[in-house]
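#lab-general

N.A. 3:47 PM
ok so I finally got the sequence cleaned up, no stray characters, all 184 residues accounted for. can someone with queue access submit it? mine expired

B.Y. 3:52 PM
send it over

N.A. 3:53 PM
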Amino acid sequence: MSKKVEYSFSSIISIDPYMGSYLSNTSSFISDLKSIQFSKDQYIISYLNSKNFINSQISISKNILDDDLHDAIANKVYDELALDQTIAYQIEFTEIFNLPDEYNRNFYVFAIESLKIREIFKKRVGKIKYIDFIIPSPLLLKSLYIKDIVESDGVHCYIYFQKNDASVTIYNKKEFLYTKSINY
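B.Y. 4:20 PM
back already:
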């Protein structure tokens, strides 16, 4: 017996902050929107180009409790990447499971200045008030594995071209492994 999942939102709106375009997903149909308006029952998502964030791989001791993990990662990112302590960064991370280590947990981190996020989304947020979810563009490829569009075994290398960005992203056995922004 399967349970029916009920959502508390009527549609998903995807925003391209660089091109200023909007897509709506309602009942499995995607449509292009010319403009958007605020609605409490919409779920708003967007992404950041790979050239907008600093990314790196770090290791954290397995002794760190999950409750303290975000703070431990943030401290290590500021130290290892020599980030300016006077600037606020938004730091997100994803654990890398296919790099076994007896003593440490491995993470891929994405850091971006908080002011840069505001600058990128300034024009878009005014119309909708807030964005529910922002993801680094390399992690968008994870959906190919979730939907079984790409085989889950092996190593996959993606070269991602957009009008204003390009990157190389590597996945190994469905898990994100590495990304690098490239100039073109």
